[in-house]
Amino acid sequence: MRELDVKSKNLLKVVVCGILLYFGLYYIGHVADAVGKLYLVIQPFILGGALAFIISIPMNFFESEFAHFDKTGKHKKIISTCSLLLSWILVIASLVILINILVPSIVKVVYTFSIRWPDFVDEIYRLLKKYPITEPFANKFQNTFYGVGWYNVRNAVYTFLQGRKGDIFSTAASLMGSISSGVIGVFTMFVFSIFILIYKRMLKINGIRILYALMSEERADYINKVFSLSYNTFKDYLFSRVIAVICLSILTFVGMFVMRLPNAAMISIVVGLSDLIPIFGPIFGTAFSTILIFIESPVKSLIFLAYSLIIQQIQENVIYPAIAGNKIGLPAVWVMASVTIGGSLFGVWGMLVSIPVVSVLYTLSHEKIHEMLTEKGFDEQKLFAKCDKVYKIEDIETNDEAYEE
User: Fold this and answer.
1) What protein family does this chain belong to (predicted)?
2) For residue 98, is it within any domain?
3) Cα distance between the two ends of the chain
4) CA–CA distance from 235 to each of 13, 46, 61, 329 (Å)?
5) What are the Cα distances from residue 360, in Å, to 219, 229, 302, 319, 327?
6) Which of 151, 172, 198 is the last residue of a domain?
7) Which range marks the domain in which residue 339 is found?
8) 47, 166, 283, 382: which has the fewest Cβ within 10 Å?
9) Helix runs in 376-399, H state only
């Protein structure tokens, strides 16, 4: 009777899932709208959780360091509060430093670009006229780009505003609404992240209680292991990536400062931040920085390009492996695949989080495969022997001669 009940429950689950899948596909438009609205509602909480995760990394470090001075364990709340404050001070100070470096540098680059543009076009024009193979493109290049300047940009903006004069008030109203909703969302995200960090121990204990109350101990142990593995993988990946980015930015700044290349501070930050995105980030950062330097000096841009390629090889092959070690445990081919697929599906955010996600899935799947092979009695030597075994067409017995006769 009990076996019949289990079969009935499984059959009921399949039927219910089939009905839900049918209605979900039939009303796919309404489902997509509902999911979009739900995402807009919970987006501040998702971002708040992500912010809390980032802040928890320095916070846990400070807590572990301060715990050495609290032998009795009576000052845990004070230690947590001080660690949280220090973590926020560290993050805010880093943002202030970045803004103070980037904003003046961006203003300087824009000003230099506006001044250097005619000279830059003339230099390219003379370079194209110098060689017979590129001479036909010289006049076309000059006519196309020489007239581009801030006067034309101003006229284009003025014409655009004149054409949309009737919509100016509605545009301003929608802009104010977007700003107010954005401020509310940022405030909610900030408060929610602080709430998570203050009550993280209580939230973890309550989550464990609910998990073991609703599931069997074996399944709850596995889910708890998955969550712990995911947290530590994301933490180790983010920490090692940030340290590697800082090292790359310092190397870029020192090299550019020694070689007297322009915009050393801003470009070192751009190169470092772009390196957060594996594979494609360094390409974009190097190309963008090379173009900025090329506007001022083509020769210096080539020097920067060569230097950037060298230090990126050092960073990828020496610095980052020394920091990360085998904590990620993902082969290069899977890194390429995860970044490409993650970027195609979710853009930049997909590129950022795809590697730790795939790393967790890769580790869990390999663990399961190892358990299944162990149950079947396969050891490593037996598997290697089967892997190295070569099969050729002439070695396969098909007995085709009998059919031909």
Assistant:
1) Belongs to the autoinducer-2 exporter (AI-2E) (TC 2.A.86) family.
2) yes
3) 61
4) 37, 17, 12, 14
5) 18, 7, 40, 23, 11
6) 198
7) 329-389
8) 166
9) 380-388
